[in-house]
């Protein structure tokens, strides 16, 4: 890897800007047809799943396929549809429903909260300690930049619980960061909304989600109440585990780097691109795998071009990797099991004060020197 001082960031920015402009100039029916096709598949999976669950009246063998179809629908809604639509990737279509302003996803988190914390903060300040609240989600110590605390000893179990309840962790993320319920106002409060507004939106969306999944659809099933309730719980747990795992694989693998506010002050467009590449990881796999991840398997490309339709990331990846090689910038990509293994290793390593993972931060230290 080249030292940062030897990289021509103006030229780097020009190359990525050209890719961005080229793709956006080609947006059209292919992109609109794709997202509408995915929405149809999502709806078919949900409707089929709910119909199959009613067949549990005849045999419990229908419970598992019904639950898996619901999980598929929830994963598609969360990853390939909701996340990408709320990034504004399809705003150019001027569709009244498929746009970042009106879309609400099938998850406990309010879309407005997600867009404030994720779209703005995380994508602007990616991996800047003290600015990016998505780094460790306020629960996990993932680098030496954060001081070790006694609670970090059991952070592996904290991670497992976060994964199982990921939609609720995301829903509560903004309120926790703003200390809405603990009575300790932050002096550097980032949200422009009042505590009462944040509480109202949180409880409104959470209440609707709980009612839909655990009251309305089970009651609608009549004598199949318990089976539909169990299937909804299972589908949500599967979706939570999947989305959490994919997101962690894109942000917390072995070689992902962190940054200080000082070193990013006055950052140029090229340096911003550079930081996105060093703070992200990719996953390799077949086409269906990329769709199921919402194309966050191409996390590097997503961080570089968050408002480009995500299904185009796969074709952009070789171009981005070639530019990375040209400028001597690491391009962190690997198989799902390889990358996830390093995520688990990172969580475990930073659970302990006497295991400062110099190996994980080695590339970052070389960059600073």
UniProtKB/TrEMBL annotation:
GO terms for cellular component: membrane. The keyword Transmembrane helix applies. InterPro entries: FA_desaturase_dom (IPR005804), Fatty_acid_desaturase (IPR012171). Keywords: Membrane, Transmembrane, Transmembrane helix. One of its GO terms (biological process) is lipid metabolic process. The keyword Plastid does not apply. GO terms for molecular function: oxidoreductase activity, acting on paired donors, with oxidation of a pair of donors resulting in the reduction of molecular oxygen to two molecules of water. Pfam families: FA_desaturase (PF00487). Residues 60-333 form the Fatty acid desaturase domain. The chain crosses the membrane at residues 51-76, 214-235. This is Fatty acid desaturase. It comes from Marinicella litoralis. The lineage of its organism: Bacteria, Pseudomonadati, Pseudomonadota, Gammaproteobacteria, Lysobacterales.
């Amino acid at each position: 890897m080249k030292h940062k001082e030897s990289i021509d960031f103006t030229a780097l920015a020009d190359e990525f800007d050209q890719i961005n402009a080229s793709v956006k100039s080609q947006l059209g029916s292919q992109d609109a047809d794709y997202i509408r096709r995915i929405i149809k598949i999502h709806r078919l999976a949900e409707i089929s799943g709910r119909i199959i669950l009613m067949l549990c009246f005849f045999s419990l063998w229908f419970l598992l396929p019904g639950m898996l179809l619901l999980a598929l629908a929830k994963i598609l809604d969360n990853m390939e549809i909701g996340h990408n639509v709320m990034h504004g990737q399809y705003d150019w279509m001027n569709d009244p429903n498929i746009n970042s302003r009106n879309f609400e996803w099938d998850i406990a988190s309010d879309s407005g909260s997600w867009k404030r914390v994720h779209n703005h903060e995380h994508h602007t300040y990616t991996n800047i300690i003290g600015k990016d609240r998505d780094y460790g989600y306020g629960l996990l110590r993932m680098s030496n930049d954060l001081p070790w605390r006694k609670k970090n000893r059991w952070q592996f179990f904290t991670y497992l619980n976060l994964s199982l309840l990921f939609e609720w962790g995301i829903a509560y993320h903004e309120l926790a960061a703003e200390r809405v319920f603990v009575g300790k106002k932050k002096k550097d409060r980032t949200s422009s909304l009042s505590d009462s507004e944040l509480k109202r939106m949180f409880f409104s969306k959470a209440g609707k989600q709980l009612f839909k999944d655990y009251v309305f659809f089970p009651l609608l099933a009549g004598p199949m109440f318990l089976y539909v309730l169990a299937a909804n719980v299972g589908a949500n747990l599967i979706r939570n585990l999947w989305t959490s795992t994919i997101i962690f694989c894109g942000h917390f693998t072995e070689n992902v780097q962190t940054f200080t506010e000082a070193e990013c002050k006055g950052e140029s467009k090229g340096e911003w691109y550079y930081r996105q590449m060093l703070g992200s990881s990719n996953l390799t796999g077949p086409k269906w795998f990329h769709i199921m991840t919402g194309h966050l398997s191409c996390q590097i490309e997503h961080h570089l071009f968050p408002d480009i339709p995500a299904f185009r990331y796969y074709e952009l990846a070789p171009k981005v990797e070639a530019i990375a090689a040209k400028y001597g910038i690491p391009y962190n990509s690997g198989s799902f099991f390889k990358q996830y293994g390093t995520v688990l290793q990172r969580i475990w390593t930073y659970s302990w004060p006497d295991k400062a993972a110099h190996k994980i931060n080695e590339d970052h230290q070389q960059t600073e020197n």
